[in-house]
């Protein structure tokens, strides 16, 4: 394939939530990389950088509008309210689906190596429809952050969620994949687990993770654990299968205990013991409450899915919405979380 044939349209999807401190530092890096790809003939000059404002409460949207006025390669959309990081990425992808050949989603903070985009595009030309950006090492993270992240991916895979280890939401996706991805209507989104389900040829690009350029991380431990739990309950029924197994084991232990009590009664060696009784009661009560809680999470997700509420609503664009039959209400999670 010649360079001339490699004139595809790329949209870089950048979700933004309260990024007024970091966006002025990183927008130039995104533009430099896109300009480099255009100069090499690997993508068309019609390529764009799409900032998705996720209901920010600071000056993020004003910055995006100024950037869009300064350079045609910057465009932006704003959600009607905060929907969460996953819904913001989805909004950008669905905005691009009828206008692009490929998209690359990347966070705004500059921690993911922007220069890896060129290798991603090269991998696309080699025949890959999805290219996952994978962190080669996490030396810039604290010991606690690094190890909790490792546990995060280990836990997801053990629970049956198919995810790429050390891959977040930095990925290249072809338009062919996006059109198939439109058929996934889940309200409870976990994109890094959904794209492997779509299939098609895929590969990985490895990069070193940088320090956050400015601002504060939107991924504290609480949100990371919440994201992991959402990923498991959205993509796998293994926790319910585990509850069934635990229930069977506890029932077997209880049956053995009954036999032991009967034999002890016949032998006349029964001694009343309040501590042992309380331990059994508390243990069984804890197992039951935990099991009900997990099942309740699944019931709650079913409740949200049956409502079929939109997953995002675009309230404003920096450009005219031409050439698309799509509506703004393409799908918003009922929960309005901060960036996960």
Characterization of the model:
- With 340 residues, the chain is α/β, with parallel strands linked by helices.
- It has two domains: 10-236 and 309-317, Spore Coat Polysaccharide Biosynthesis Protein SpsA, Chain A; 238-307.
- 47% of the residues lie in helices and 15% in strands.
- The protein contains ten helices and eight strands.
- The protein has helices spanning 23-39, 60-70, 85-96, 116-125, 143-158, 175-181, 191-198, 221-235, 238-267, 274-307, and strands at residues 10-16, 48-53, 74-79, 102-105, 130-137, 167-174, 202-208, 314-317.
- An eight-stranded mixed beta sheet has the order 7-5-6-4-1-2-3-8, with helices on both faces.
- Helix 9 (238-267) runs antiparallel to helix 10.
Main attributes of the structure:
340 residues; alpha/beta; Spore Coat Polysaccharide Biosynthesis Protein SpsA, Chain A; 8-stranded mixed sheet; 8 strands; disordered C terminus
Compute the number of strand runs.
8
**SSE order:** EHEHEHEHEHEHHEHHHE
Largest sheet: 8 strands, mixed
Instruction: Note poorly predicted spans.
Output: 322-340
What percent of residues are in strands? 5-15%
What do we call the CATH homologous superfamily of the largest domain?
Spore Coat Polysaccharide Biosynthesis Protein SpsA, Chain A
The share of residues in helices is 40-55%
CATH architecture of the largest domain: Alpha-Beta Complex
Q: How far from one another are the termini? A: 40 Å
| Spatial strand order of the main sheet | 7-5-6-4-1-2-3-8
Class inferred from helices and paired strands: alpha/beta
Mean pLDDT: 75
CATH topology of the largest domain: Spore Coat Polysaccharide Biosynthesis Protein SpsA, Chain A
Alpha carbon gyration radius: 25 Å
């Amino acid at each position: 394939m010649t360079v001339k044939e490699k004139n595809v349209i790329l949209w870089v999807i950048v979700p933004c939530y309260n990024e007024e401190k970091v966006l002025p530092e990183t927008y130039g890096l995104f533009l430099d990389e896109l300009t480099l790809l255009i100069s090499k003939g690997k993508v068309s000059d019609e390529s764009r950088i799409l900032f998705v404002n996720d209901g920010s409460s600071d000056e993020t949207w004003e910055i995006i509008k100024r950037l869009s006025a300064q350079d045609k390669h910057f465009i932006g959309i704003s959600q009607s309210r905060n929907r969460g990081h996953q819904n913001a990425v989805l909004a950008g992808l669905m905005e691009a689906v009828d206008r692009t050949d490929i998209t690359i989603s990347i966070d705004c903070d500059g921690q993911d190596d922007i220069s890896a985009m060129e290798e991603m595009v090269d991998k696309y030309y080699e025949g890959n429809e999805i290219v996952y950006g994978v962190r080669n090492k996490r030396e810039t993270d604290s010991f606690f952050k690094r190890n909790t992240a490792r546990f995060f991916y280990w836990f997801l895979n053990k629970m049956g969620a198919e995810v790429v280890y050390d891959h977040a939401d930095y990925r290249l996706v072809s338009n062919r994949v996006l059109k198939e991805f439109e058929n996934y209507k889940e309200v409870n989104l976990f994109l890094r687990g959904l794209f492997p389900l779509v299939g098609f040829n895929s590969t990985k690009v490895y990069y070193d993770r940088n320090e956050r350029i400015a601002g504060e991380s939107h991924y504290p431990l609480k949100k990371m654990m919440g994201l992991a739990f959402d990923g498991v309950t959205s993509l796998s029924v293994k926790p319910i299968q585990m509850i069934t197994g635990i229930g069977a084991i506890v029932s077997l232990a209880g049956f053995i205990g009954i036999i032991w009590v009967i034999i002890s009664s016949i032998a006349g060696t029964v001694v009343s013991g309040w501590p042992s009784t309380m331990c059994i009661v508390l243990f069984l009560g804890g197992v039951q409450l935990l099991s009900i809680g997990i099942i309740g999470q699944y019931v709650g997700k079913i409740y949200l899915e049956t409502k079929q509420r939109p997953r995002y609503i675009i309230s404003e664009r920096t450009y005219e919405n031409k050439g698309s039959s799509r509506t703004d209400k393409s799908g918003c999670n009922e929960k309005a979380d901060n960036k996960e």
